[in-house]
Amino acid sequence: MGSTLELLGSVQGTGSSATLQFTGIPTDTQSFVLRGLVSESSSGAGILALRFNSDSGSRYAGRQYFYASSGGSMSSGAYNTVYTYLRLIDEIPGTSENVGYGRAQFESEIYSLAKQAESPGSPAAFTRWGTEYGDRLGWTAGAYAYTEAAPTATDVTTMEITLGSGGNFSTTTYMSLYKRPAS
Questions:
Q1: pLDDT tens for each residue of 82-120
Q2: Beta-sheet strands, E only, within the chain
Q3: Separation CA 169–CA 145 (nearest Å)
Q4: Cα Rg, the chain, nearest whole Å
Q5: Distance between CA atoms of 111 and 182, rounded to whole angstroms?
Q6: CA dihedral 151, 157, 163, 169 (to 10 degrees)
Q7: Using CA atoms, how far apart are residues 53 and 68, in angstroms rounded to an integer?
Q8: CA gap 114, 162 in Å, rounded
Q9: Model pLDDT for residues 49-71, shown as the tens digit of each residue
Q10: CB 87: neighbour CB atoms within 10 A?
Q11: Is 99 helix (H, G, I), strand (E, B) or coil?
Q12: b vs e for 64-78, b when ≥16 Cβ sit within 10 Å of the residue's Cβ?
């Protein structure tokens, strides 16, 4: 496999929307990298979520681990459940953090977006993230799970990234989607 990533596109928050989309995703490769720096407009902390082809059914299975430093001690947590989205980041800091927009950064490896008949298994993602909210560092993994009735034999051509907090992506939010060359 080649060592170069090809930029497919970038999106930026507008301050007035809780959704960002990558559309027209090519089906000539099955390996993608999604990178971003995220902030939101609400005062509370929110999550960053991913949907394939705008499907909001309960078809996404995931697991998350995170470590947080609070008061000089470390804590950890995990979840394993089915949602209407694939969780990428557990806590995006809101405007109450750092007297303005707090930041979270992430990098997701996304695999197997082709038809099930061509590539058995569910489209899946592994994400590494860090945030100023509680000094958290985390890892999430999950899939658009065929065992939860995700459609089979359907190419993923759209990735929709949403906030689960009631806020909007600030104008300092920026994400880029790259594809790996076909081998």
A1: 677 777 777 777 666 555 566 788 898 888 655 545 544
A2: 6-12, 19-22, 31-38, 46-52, 60-70, 73-83, 86-92, 104-111, 124-131, 136-144, 159-163, 174-179
A3: 27
A4: 16
A5: 12
A6: -170
A7: 33
A8: 23
A9: 888 888 888 888 887 777 766 65
A10: 23
A11: helix
A12: bebebeeeeeeeeee
Give the distance from CA 72 to its chain's centroid: 29
Query: How far apart, in Å, do the first and last CA atoms of the chain sit?
Result: 5
Amino acid at 61: A
Q: How far apart are CA 40 and CA 18, in angstroms?
A: 9
The type of residue at 78 is A
- How distant, in Å, are the alpha carbons of 55, 112, 150, 155, 162 from that of 145? 12, 12, 6, 14, 19
Q: Within the chain, what is the greatest distance between any pair of CA atoms?
A: 51
- Residue given tokens 């190419």 in the structure block: 155
Instruction: Supply the DSSP symbol for 134.
Output: G
Three-state DSSP class for 98?
Answer: helix
**Whole-number Cα distances in Å, 136 to 37, 74, 97, 125, 160:** 15, 10, 13, 20, 24
Within 8 A by CB and 6+ apart from 4, the residues are 181
pTM of the full predicted structure?
A: 0.82
Strand partners, 48: 89, 163
Identity of the amino acid at 152: T
Which of these, 3, 7, 1, 50, lies nearest to 179 by C-alpha position? 7
